[in-house]
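Researcher: Checking consistency across runs. Here is Glutamine synthetase again:
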Amino acid sequence: MSVKKVLETIKENNIEWVDFRFVDLGGRAHHISLPASEVEDETFVNGVAFDGSSITGFRGIEESDMVMMPDPSTTYIDPFTAHPTLNIMCDIFTPDGERYERDPRGIAVKAEEFLQASGVGSAAFFAPESEFFIFDDVRYESGMNSSSYFVDSEEAAWNTGRKEEGGNMAFKVGVKGGYVPVAPVDSQQDIRSEMCRLLAEAGLRIERHHHEVATAGQAEINFRFDTLKKTADNLLTYKYIVQNTARQYGKVATFMPKPLFGDNGSGMHVHQSIFNGSEPLFYEKGAYANLSEMALNYIGGILYHAPALIALTNPSTNSFKRLVPGYEAPVNLVYSKGNRSAAVRIPVAAVTPKGCRIEFRTPDSTANPYLAFSAMLMAGLDGIKKKMNPEELGYGPYDKNIYELSDAEKAKIRSVPGTLDEALDALEADHDFLTEGGVFTEDFIANYVSLKRSEAQAVAIRVHPHEYSLYFDV
């Protein structure tokens, strides 16, 4: 959408407010609303000022003035506001007109430019499968003398014996029993369909939705792949609409990777490929999984740099509650066709040459998508540049259930880091591939690691409720 079209949309839809948005290092969106009457052509030239010192990980108070530069192509009408509002995503610049090096969206721009300058291809395409839970009740606290959380869902396995007003409706979803059942077991068809309707109105092309494996309302909605930055934009829109639709239904949606103990967590499997114009570069008919040498080298880069990547694709302490064996978690740094126990899966069902792609299954939705997609692309390009053959590096292919291998066979397979701190250690030791072409900077990485270390420390020093079960009577 052009600036002219944005201004026409404001008039045609009687828009009262224009909401200018940007994303912080953690992937959370922030916004400032201007009266629509104040939005003119100059707004898209001069931008919207904001205080960068109030955003964690950005700037100090002595250099706090920053500018949001609106991207008119990201415009959509907000479906939730009482006063008609237009939402627009922005890039972040300094007052002197320089792109801010810690702006995650700006890093995505640089990653796409680096791909084009490399001569490998013209565009990288991404498609995330971002899973989430829909709960009916969520409560938590963390204080000096108490620490607890509580979640509930009308369809949860633990509620088979609950007496509700009017009687228990039964048909609960069993533990690991929630993959694509029909109603009445799947009680959330309509809320997911409403989410999809609103996502489509916002410009996302919806491919499908369904209940996921876990009990208590785990769900997945898939939207069409797009270029790196556009897909990251779409993912922020996706999370906004999912969470606010749930709220309208009197429920709450969370993208937290592991909100429940003892059942599957929520991942964000990321499908990715590279094209040169209209030509798909990952396809070679008759090769293993119909993958080209370029695609294999891209996989080699992903798996070689995976420990460092995971600091950006799984950047929460909760991420590592999901990354444990036994819950379909892709903890094994190998590749395979059609095998969901591998970190990298190559989809083979109903795949056309243009649909040929690789799927990195380790990430989750606590990731900032601009950073995560950019980092994956940079790792893959490093693999292409250095011709990293994943088979020669010992990454497979493994075309069998890895969880059922013998201990001796498993010992040969690298695993993901076990904690956020371990992943951050790996990122500090291995990040030259990210700084190629100035896509990520040393300043950004040092700042990012510092912020994430503080999160890990905040969790590590707090008393865990289960420690009372283990140690109170010693």
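Researcher: Does this match what you'd expect to see?
Model: One thing to look at in this run: The CA atoms of residues 11 and 36 lie 9 Å apart.
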